[in-house]
Design goal:
This protein is an alpha/beta fold. The protein has two domains: about 130 residues, Cytidine Deaminase, domain 2 (3-Layer(aba) Sandwich), CATH 3.40.140; about 35 residues, no CATH class. It has five helices and twelve strands. The strands form three sheets. An eight-stranded mixed beta sheet has the order 9-8-7-6-2-3-1-10. Strands 4-5 form a two-stranded antiparallel sheet. It is elongated, with a radius of gyration of 31 Å. About 5% of the residues have low confidence. Bound molecules: zinc ion. The site of zinc ion has 5 residues, from loops.
Length: about 200
């Protein structure tokens, strides 16, 4: 199922930067987990113990259980991210199985990336009906910074704003006798209209 409008997943810029760093470091695949809030914002991405090959990353159930046990908000670990290394981004049968293995009571966001920085994102719902929404747009959320006051004071200090000059449209009609009188548009009168063939 392909989404046209509406639903989108967000990821915070720091989480995405970690993913790109690990994607570069990995020779092939790797997996990580992250938290996702109810607004579908992915954050707090973390690695866990895993054994990877060029073409697969197995989710070790013991390592996963250990990771969730130690996590401060295990119920919010609702995002699974993995890289395909140099391969394209798609959902393999193993990925589908992995997603089913991570089923929870709300939803799971899955993101697959590669070394070319391609991204594909899907959201799976498990209850009350099993639903997969694929190719969901992923937006990067910049860190919240309150720069309003600082920007205002710098702006007031450095920027002088003047009223823009109003350029008035001018009549370029030549006067009888060859002189050209420059006249502003609002002064365009009946005589001018007559010269233009009106009235
Ligand atoms: Zn995969």
């Amino acid at each position: 199922m392909k989404i046209k409008t509406g639903l989108r997943v967000c990821i915070d810029a720091e989480a995405l930067e970690r993913i790109w760093q690990w994607t570069e470091l990995a020779k092939g695949e790797f997996s990580c987990l992250a938290m996702a809030d109810d607004g579908l914002l992915v954050h707090g991405v973390q690695l866990f113990d895993q054994t990877c090959t060029q073409a697969s990353t197995e989710l070790d159930q013991d390592a996963l259980a250990k990771f969730l046990c130690r996590h401060r908000e295990p119920e919010n670990v609702r995002a699974w991210i993995h890289s395909h290394g140099n391969l394209s981004v798609f959902w393999s049968a193993q990925d589908d199985a992995c997603i089913d293995g991570l089923a929870n009571e709300s939803f799971l966001i899955s993101i697959v990336v590669n070394k070319r920085h391609d991204i594909r994102c899907r959201v799976d719902f498990f209850q009350p009906v099993r639903l997969t929404l694929d190719e969901v747009p992923l937006e990067v959320r910049m860190p919240a910074t309150d720069l309003k006051a600082e920007c205002e004071s710098a702006f007031l200090k450095h920027v002088t704003e003047v009223q823009p000059m109003v350029v008035r449209q001018q009549s370029m009609m030549p006067e009888p006798g060859g002189m050209r009188r420059v006249r502003n548009w609002p002064d365009f009168d009946d005589d001018d209209m007559a010269m233009w063939g009106g009235r």
